[in-house]
Amino acid sequence: MIHLASPIIDDQEIDAVTRVMRSGMLAQGSEVAAFEKEFAATFNVGHAAAVANGTMALVVALRAAGVAHGDEVIVPSFTFAATANAVALAGGVPVFADIDAPSFNINPNEAAKLIGPKTKGIIAVHLYGQMAPMAVLADLAHSHDLFLIEDAAQAHGAVRDGLPVGALSDFSTYSFYPTKNMTTGEGGMVTSTNPDLIEAIRLQRNHGMLRRYHHDLIGTNARMTDISAAIGRVQLTKIAGWNEQRRAIAKIYDLHLAGIVDTPPVVENADHVYHQYTIRSEQRDAIVATCEDVGVGYGIYYPIPTHRQKAFARYATGRELEETDRAAATVLSIPIRPDLQQEEIDIVIDTITTGAKK
Q1: Cα 207 to chain center, whole Å?
Q2: Strand partners, 150
Q3: Strands 72-76 and 93-97
Q4: pLDDT for residue 26 is more than 90
Q5: Domains (ranges, CATH) in the chain?
Q6: Residue 49: how many CB atoms within 10 A of its CB?
Q7: What is the pLDDT of residues 27-56, one digit of tens each?
């Protein structure tokens, strides 16, 4: 079986966890503080605050941005439900925008049509590892006095037009779930170029406390453990190489699958980090059947757009999101793990080719 995704863990991560376990300091402590500094430096993101997971990274960012009951936040529908879940959990109303077909990311022109008197902000999701058009989105947000958040759960290390994730937004948020480009087991991070905004995150994640038993606001427990941070610190030293390996595998796929399926285009002046290598094909069912026969892992991210999910029926407006629905019906992600061997890559290519020609 060629697995679609799996965490890469070796003795370095195991030794780091053992070191923390023996120290007796398991909750948020020196390892978390070091991880935050190293993460900010590695990705040139200014300031960072670690949290329990990627969803809570979004929730505390939204709360720090001032989202209150009834505030509308524009989000793409074509993404994992966590993005819209976070808006609702923060008290806001998710308003669903269509995507740009080639990139799978939120379409700024479609987002602009949704701005109204209740709009508080915009969340851009860098889906599959390619950054959304942040310069355009930043101009849109600033012109309407809206906050801008980047959901970078799938985009650790992505760059566009020479700028990293987080350079043009109020907050960027990350996930360290086991299948992400880097992991801490579970965990998340919020970054900002504004140190005051990061202080707001630190309050939100720790019951409104910067000093013990001094509660400045109503917060929650979204803290990261030192165990998770220790894993993350090791993974930080490896992710640049892993991302390069993902790009190298993508080039091989591009070469052999172009014309057979729609391969993922990369926008000009961008570094895609290929959390997923996502093809499009009208023959998806045949390709899936062939993958299952051969034992090639695959994923459909995402078969049901968020605006069509039962949980979000109350937010449905009846607007048609044509590109979102089209993507949901045709996308297929294939293995692009950085530890894939050439023999496995060849099998994946043969399998996709065979399925597409059925």
Answers
A1: 25
A2: 124, 172
A3: parallel
A4: no
A5: 11-236 (3.40.640.10), 240-356 (3.90.1150.10)
A6: 31
A7: 888 999 999 999 999 999 999 999 999 999
SS3 call for 148 = strand
Q: In terms of Cα–Cα distance, which of 77, 117, 82 is closest to 320?
A: 77
pLDDT digits (tens, 9 = 90+) for 236-295: 999 999 999 999 999 999 999 999 999 999 999 999 999 999 999 999 999 999 999 999
d(CA 186, CA 277): 23
User: Which is nearest to 150 in space by CA: 190, 209, 179?
Assistant: 190
Phi, psi torsion values for 56, nearest 5 degrees = -65, -30
Q: Is-above-0.70 flag for pTM? A: yes
Cα(276)–Cα(131) distance, integer angstroms: 13
> Cα(188)–Cα(192) distance, rounded to whole angstroms?
14
- From the list 223, 231, 236, the residue with the least C-alpha distance to 29 is 223
Which residues, including other chains, have CB under 8 Å from residue 334's CB and lie 6 or more apart?
4, 253, 277, 279, 291, 296, 297, 298, 348, 352
For the record, the structure tokens of 63 come out as: 């709360």
Q: Which long-range contacts link 244-249 to residues 24+ away (Cβ below 8 Å)?
A: 245/338, 245/339, 246/129, 246/181, 246/273, 246/274, 246/277, 246/336, 246/338, 247/271, 247/272, 247/273, 247/274, 249/274, 249/277, 249/336, 249/338, 249/340, 249/345
Q: 136 phi and psi, to 5 degrees?
A: -65, -45
d(CA 58, CA 220): 13
Amino acid symbol at 345:
I
Residue 329 host element (H or E) = helix 322-330
**Nearest C-alpha neighbor of 229 from the set 31, 47, 45, 54:** 31
Question: Exposed, middle or buried: residue 152 (CB in 10 Å: 0-12, 13-18, 19+)?
Answer: buried
CA distances from 79 to 43, 59, 199, 214, 296 (A): 23, 16, 28, 38, 23
Q: Are 182 and 232 in contact (CB under 8 A)?
A: yes
Q: What is the DSSP letter of 130?
A: -
**CA geometry: angle at 96 spanning 328 and 162, to 5°?**
80
Could you write out the three-class secondary structure of 57-113? HHHHHHHHCCCCCCCEEEEECCCCCHHHHHHHHCCCEEEEECECCCCCCECHHHHHH
